[in-house]
Amino acid sequence: MPAPEKFENVTALTKANIYFEGRVVSHTIFMPGGARKTLGLIYPGSFHFGTDLAERMEIVAGDCSVKLDGAAITFTRGAGETFDVPAKSGFDIEVAAGICEYVCTFLG
């Protein structure tokens, strides 16, 4: 099931999360009940992210290649697709061209 086009009745933080000299940018939102998500953009490049909590990444637009820490394979995801990242791990993500838009849901 693809990410919804909008989230209603949320609290949004105005300060952006900026990584890798502005090549990855997100904003945090809190859902009713307190669950946290980030909505972001990844510009072309290769990046590594560590995780504290388990995460579900939903690709809203664009494409990316992903390799989970400890995995032997790299897989691709595009608009409408997801991937999960275990807690206390990480992943490499690469955007070859264009902009990859995502919603990250923190699962723990």
Would you kindly provide a written description of the structure presented here, covering whatever features stand out?
The structure is a single chain. By secondary structure, the protein is mainly beta. It has a single domain, classed as Jelly Rolls (Sandwich), CATH 2.60.120.10. It contains no helices and 11 strands. It has strands spanning 11-12, 17-19, 24-30, 36-42, 45-50, 55-61, 63-68, 75-78, 82-85, 90-95, 100-106. Strands 1, 2, 3, 4, 6, 9 and 11 form a 7-stranded antiparallel β-sheet that branches. Strands 5-10-7-8 form a 4-stranded antiparallel β-sheet, with no helix packed on it. A hairpin with a 4-residue loop joins strand 2 (17-19) and strand 3 (24-30). The mean pLDDT is 95.
Protein topology:
Blueprint: E1 11-12, E2 17-19, E3 24-30, E4 36-42, E5 45-50, E6 55-61, E7 63-68, E8 75-78, E9 82-85, E10 90-95, E11 100-106
Antiparallel strand pairs: 1-3, 2-3, 3-4, 4-11, 5-10, 6-9, 6-11, 7-8, 7-10
Name of the CATH superfamily: Jelly Rolls
The H/E string reads EEEEEEEEEEE
Fraction in beta strands: over 45%
Could you name the CATH topology?
A: Jelly Rolls
Quickly describe the structure.
The protein is mostly beta strands and 108 residues long. The protein has no helices and eleven strands.
Main attributes?
seven-stranded antiparallel β-sheet; mainly beta; four-stranded antiparallel β-sheet; Jelly Rolls; single chain; 55% strand; 108 residues
